[in-house]
C-alpha cells in the first residue's frame, strides 16, 4: 500500500507522518502487506477500533497496536516522531546525536538516545551467509576518548579492553562487481587481538577459496591454507595491483569521522550499535533517502530492545551521544 506515495525527503516525511492515521497505516502496510494479522494467534481481519487506533482480534479477543512486536513497542512516543527520527538516522551521513534528536523532535535527550539505539537495532544486518569473491580484511581501534573521562568512570568503562580504552574492530569489505557496490561486515574482537581471533573471524565470515587481502600483520600468516591470501606491506607500498585494503581504510575513515564529529563519546559497551549504523548506511549508499528509510522501516518488525537491556547492569546512568 502506502509505499508508492511514501516520502522522498525529510520534509516530506515530517509532513506525511504528522497525520497519525497515515503513519499508522504506513507501518501496518509494511508489516502486514497481506492485511492486518493478530500477533497473538495469527487470525486475519481483526476489528479496527478507530478512535483508539487499535485492533481487536475476533478470535482471541486480544487488542493490539501497530507497534506490537516492533522496535516501537512500549514506547509512548508517537510514530509522527519515530518515523522522522528513523529517516534522519537512515540518511544522515555522519549519524545524528541524541541532542539533535531532542531539539528537532521536542523530546528529552534521554528519550532521543533510547530512540536512536532502538533504530540502530533495526539497522543491524543479521546475516550468516559467508562472503566470497575479493575480500579486504583489516582491523582498527576505536575509542581512546576514555582518557577524557573521570577516573572512576574510566575504570568502569575500559575494564576488559586491555587498559587502552580502545575497542578492536575487524572489518571485511567485499569488493563490488559490475552493478554491485562493495559492502562491509564488522565484528568486535578482543583487544589486543590474538592470531586465533583474527583467523576464526575470517573463517566465520569469508567463504573458503575466496581472495583475501590483508596488510602484513604477522597474525594473518597461515590464511593461505583456506584462502587465496595476498598481502600488501604498507611499509613498502599501498597498492600492488588488486592487492590493497584501500576500500576498508576508506570505510574506517568514514566511521571515525562520524563517531568523532557527531557523538561526544561512545561507550565501548555500545560501540557495536554505531558500527551497525555506519555499516548499514555504507552498504545502502547507492540507494535514495526514501529507499534507505523503507529498508530500516521494514526491519523494525520482529525486533525489540528494552531500556533495561540497553543500559545493561553496570553502565553509568547518564548516557551521552
Ligand atoms: Zn488473535
Description:
By secondary structure, the chain is α/β, with parallel strands linked by helices. 37% of the residues lie in helices and 14% in strands. A 5-stranded mixed β-sheet has the order 6-5-4-7-8, sandwiched between helices. Strands 1-2-3 form a 3-stranded antiparallel β-sheet, with no helix packed on it. Helix 8 packs across helix 9. Zinc ion (ZN) binds next to loops.
Quick overview:
This protein is α/β, with parallel strands linked by helices and 321 residues long. The chain is built from eleven helices and eight strands. The protein has helices at residues 10-17, 20-31, 79-91, 98-105, 109-123, 151-158, 195-205, 246-262, 271-283, 289-298, 307-311; strands at residues 47-49, 54-56, 63-64, 134-143, 166-174, 183-189, 211-215, 228-232.
Secondary structure elements and their pairing?
Blueprint: H1 10-17, H2 20-31, E1 47-49, E2 54-56, E3 63-64, H3 79-91, H4 98-105, H5 109-123, E4 134-143, H6 151-158, E5 166-174, E6 183-189, H7 195-205, E7 211-215, E8 228-232, H8 246-262, H9 271-283, H10 289-298, H11 307-311
Parallel strand pairs: 4-7, 7-8
Antiparallel strand pairs: 1-2, 2-3, 4-5, 5-6
Helix pairs in contact: 1-3, 3-5, 3-10, 4-5, 5-9, 8-9
The protein binds zinc ion (ZN).
Zinc ion binds at residues 38, 40-41, 43, 57, 59-60, 62.
Amino acid at each position: 500500500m502506502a509505499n508508492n506515495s511514501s516520502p522522498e525527503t525529510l520534509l516530506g516525511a515530517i509532513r506525511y507522518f504528522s497525520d497519525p492515521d497515515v503513519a499508522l497505516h504506513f507501518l501496518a502496510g509494511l508489516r502486514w502487506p497481506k492485511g492486518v494479522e493478530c500477533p497473538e494467534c495469527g487470525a486475519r481481519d481483526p476489528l479496527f477500533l478507530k478512535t483508539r487506533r487499535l485492533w481487536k482480534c475476533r478470535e482471541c479477543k486480544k487488542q493490539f497496536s501497530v507497534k506490537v512486536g516492533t522496535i516501537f513497542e512500549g514506547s509512548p512516543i508517537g510514530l509522527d516522531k519515530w518515523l522522522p527520527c528513523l529517516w534522519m538516522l537512515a540518511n544522515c551521513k555522519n549519524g545524528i546525536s541524541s541532542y539533535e534528536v531532542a531539539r528537532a523532535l521536542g523530546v528529552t535527550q534521554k528519550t532521543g538516545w533510547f530512540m536512536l539505539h532502538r533504530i540502530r537495532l533495526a539497522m543491524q544486518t543479521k546475516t550468516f551467509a559467508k562472503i566470497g569473491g575479493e575480500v579486504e580484511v583489516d582491523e582498527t581501534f576505536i575509542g581512546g576518548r576514555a582518557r577524557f573521562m573521570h577516573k572512576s568512570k574510566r575504570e568502569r568503562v575500559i575494564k576488559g579492553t586491555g587498559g587502552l580504552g580502545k575497542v578492536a574492530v575487524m572489518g571485511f569489505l567485499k569488493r563490488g562487481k559490475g552493478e554491485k557496490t562493495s559492502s562491509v561486515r564488522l565484528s568486535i574482537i578482543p583487544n589486543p587481538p590474538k592470531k586465533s581471533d583474527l583467523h576464526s573471524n575470517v573463517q566465520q565470515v569469508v567463504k573458503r577459496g575466496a581472495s583475501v587481502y590483508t596488510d602484513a600483520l604477522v597474525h594473518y600468516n597461515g590464511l593461505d591454507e583456506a584462502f587465496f591470501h595476498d598481502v600488501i606491506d604498507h611499509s613498502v607500498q599501498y597498492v600492488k595491483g588488486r592487492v590493497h585494503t584501500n576500500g576498508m581504510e576508506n570505510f574506517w575513515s568514514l566511521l571515525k569521522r562520524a563517531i568523532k564529529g557527531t557523538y561526544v563519546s561512545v561507550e565501548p559497551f555500545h560501540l557495536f550499535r554505531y558500527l551497525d549504523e555506519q555499516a548499514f548506511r555504507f552498504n545502502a549508499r547507492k540507494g535514495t533517502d526514501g529507499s534507505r528509510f523503507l529498508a530500516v522501516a521494514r526491519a523494525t518488525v520482529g525486533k525489540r530492545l528494552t531500556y533495561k537491556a540497553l543500559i545493561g547492569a553496570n553502565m553509568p546512568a547518564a548516557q551521552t551521544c
